[in-house]
């Protein structure tokens, strides 16, 4: 790899998730919670369900050679065991579209939202959940496995469990430490069962999960050091150990840095996104290096920030490329980078108020406008190299 350049064939893309962009998804736990007034409504979102073609055209005009998107389980299996072939045809059209422009897909099978029938039965805590989830994954791979090599079963299992079973702010709105621990093991079991089922149908595909990891560090205080080691194990590595042997690559979703014992000056001077999250220039690098121990190919499957004014995103993207490049130079097998997100979208409990997109969406007209930072990304992609 020449100075500043990325390996040939490196994947550069962006990520989306069905419920956050597609619109018109009503038969899931999140839509039910919105009807009950517990979370904002997603409604028509960005109408990506109908506009994916033109959105992918914009992505291609920015030079992207990869896209990560998710399939909505409730569209494919709206009732238990009844699969909707028409929706399979929809996602086939999505994949055909990417194929026609030579874009590599990364397909995610579950991004937080559960079919209502499944959540009403207890979701992943239901006995038999691993087989139910695996049946869905297997069905999709039987139908669409020929279009993509890279598959994710789950997005951020630890975030899902923490928000829904510990903090109680996402469906199913529980604050129950025991259920929290149970659901982590249940989701891991569902992944392992799905992995085996998918591999049986199509052994050649590569399967992973998108794992949300945080860069933890501490000052020299022994208690803070201990907290740091425990958090790192608990948040970053425990789930990956539970599915060891059942993953062909790791997707890293990265947003956060946490320093135990940070000084008030460090806290006050930190640059923050519109979510109030610290923007740390090298945290991505540290997270990638920490994943080297698994000996698996790595993809940055999400990395981005809410920045409506687009003031921080240009430098953020340059720093992301620097972080990935440095990690590769130091032996981390990073194969691709997917920015979060292609479009502004539904940001869960924040509704549509936060702007994560390389492309701005006007929610009244659904008009798309490319943000200036997207052109910074384009330069990196076109050169396949760092820029100053
Ligand atoms: C999730 C996305 C979310 C993003 C920004 C990730 O944790 O996968 O769905 O929109 O972070 O909060």
Structural write-up:
This protein is 43% helix and 16% strand. The protein has 388 residues and is an alpha/beta fold. It has a single domain, classed as Alpha-Beta Barrel (TIM Barrel), CATH 3.20.20. It has an 8-stranded parallel β-barrel with strand order 1-2-3-4-5-6-7-8, surrounded by 6 helices. Strands 9-10 form a two-stranded antiparallel sheet. It is globular, with a radius of gyration of 20 Å. The protein binds beta-D-glucopyranose. Beta-D-glucopyranose (BGC) binds at residues 17, 20, 155-156, 159, 212, 253, 255, 302, 340, 347.
- List the total number of helices: 14
Structural class: alpha/beta
| Distinct ligands | beta-D-glucopyranose
- What is the CATH architecture assignment? Alpha-Beta Barrel
Q: Using the alpha-carbon principal axes, give the shape.
A: globular
How many β-strand runs? 10
Overall mean pLDDT stands at 98
Low-confidence stretches: none
Order of helices and strands: EHHHEHHEHHEHHEHEHHEHEEEH
Radius of gyration: 20 Å
The residue fraction in helices comes out at 40-55%
Separation of the first and last Cα atoms: 18 Å
> Could you name the CATH class?
Alpha Beta
* Assigned CATH superfamily: Glycosidases
Number of domains: 1
Largest sheet: 8 strands, parallel, barrel
User: What's the arrangement of strands in the largest beta sheet?
Assistant: 1-2-3-4-5-6-7-8
Portion in strands: 15-25%
CATH topology: TIM Barrel
